[in-house]
């Protein structure tokens, strides 16, 4: 009985000794004590940032840094910094005795996406709120799981129309898989869902021939035909009036929209058949 009691006493003594050693460590790691003794005094943010607001980064990191060197939660700090606009990736680490280092990679915008987001050169979508992106970037819209397809068609279309001095300003893929482009000339190109690349290549090849010698702008081209294109030409007077009124158009209204006389598709297909 005395032996068992002695064994239990020794176990309790060892447990108490371990607790006395471990509790201060746990308290320091959890920030209960030690923040004043081992504070984080220096915050280092990598150079070369052009868009990220370093003041917002500091504000995001400060609540975590105040817990001290041992208690700072690097994962939580990274999560909060990642929410700052333009941040594509972030790594937060500490360096003895009092340094917190933040390394940030910025988003590089490639295109506008829908009304409220941007698409980066890495193919990632991020919020456009608080972001001043170049207005001349192309505009995309469509299902998020088709980002790669939209970018690929844009790149191919840009090469196809570039030879004629025309830029591709907008690419839209709707839920039914139908493509639509807007060119820098103001032409809306309805491509459809079938053989999009083949149809665009044919149209781009014939575009200089179709527009040469015509004073009226090409307002719309429908490529969803086997043997040709349905073209709608804007009246020059209407085009000039629309351009003059463009500055006064409400936000979100289509630019340079003009009234055109209805024309039968059959006639257009006959006149502009593929060769």
UniProtKB/TrEMBL annotation:
InterPro entries named in the record: Cell_div_FtsQ/DivIB_C, FtsQ, FtsQ_C_sf, POTRA, POTRA_FtsQ_type
Any Pfam family matching the protein: POTRA_1
Cellular localisation: Cell inner membrane; Membrane
Keyword presence, Transmembrane helix: yes
GO process terms (BP): cell division
Similarity comment: Belongs to the FtsQ/DivIB family. FtsQ subfamily.
Name of the protein described by the UniProt record: Cell division protein FtsQ
Origin species: Luteimonas flava
Phylogenetic placement of the source organism: Bacteria, Pseudomonadati, Pseudomonadota, Gammaproteobacteria, Lysobacterales
């Amino acid at each position: 009985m005395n032996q068992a009691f002695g064994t239990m006493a020794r176990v309790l003594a060892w447990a108490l000794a371990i607790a006395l050693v471990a509790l201060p460590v746990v308290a320091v790691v959890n920030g209960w004590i030690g923040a004043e003794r081992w504070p984080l005094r220096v915050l280092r943010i990598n150079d070369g940032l052009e868009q990220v607001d370093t003041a917002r980064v500091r504000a995001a990191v400060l609540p975590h840094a105040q817990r001290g060197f041992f208690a700072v939660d690097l994962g939580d700090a990274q999560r909060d910094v990642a929410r700052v606009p333009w941040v594509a990736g972030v790594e937060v680490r500490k360096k003895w005795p009092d340094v917190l280092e933040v390394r940030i990679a910025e988003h590089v915008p490639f295109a506008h996406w829908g009304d409220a987001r941007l698409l980066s050169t890495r193919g990632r979508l991020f919020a456009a709120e608080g972001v001043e992106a170049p207005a001349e970037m192309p505009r995309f819209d469509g299902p998020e799981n088709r980002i790669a397809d939209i970018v690929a068609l844009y790149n191919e279309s840009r090469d196809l129309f570039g030879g004629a001095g025309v830029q591709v300003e907008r690419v839209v893929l709707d839920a039914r898989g139908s493509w639509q482009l807007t060119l820098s000339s103001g032409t809306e190109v309805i491509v459809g869902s079938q053989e999009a690349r083949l149809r665009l290549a044919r149209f781009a090849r014939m575009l200089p021939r179709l527009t040469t010698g015509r004073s009226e702008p090409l307002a719309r081209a429908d490529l969803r035909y086997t043997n040709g294109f349905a073209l709608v030409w804007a009246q020059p007077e209407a085009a000039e009036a629309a351009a003059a009124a463009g500055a006064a158009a409400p936000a979100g209204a289509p630019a340079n929209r003009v009234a055109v006389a209805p024309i039968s598709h059959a006639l257009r297909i006959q006149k502009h058949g593929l060769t």
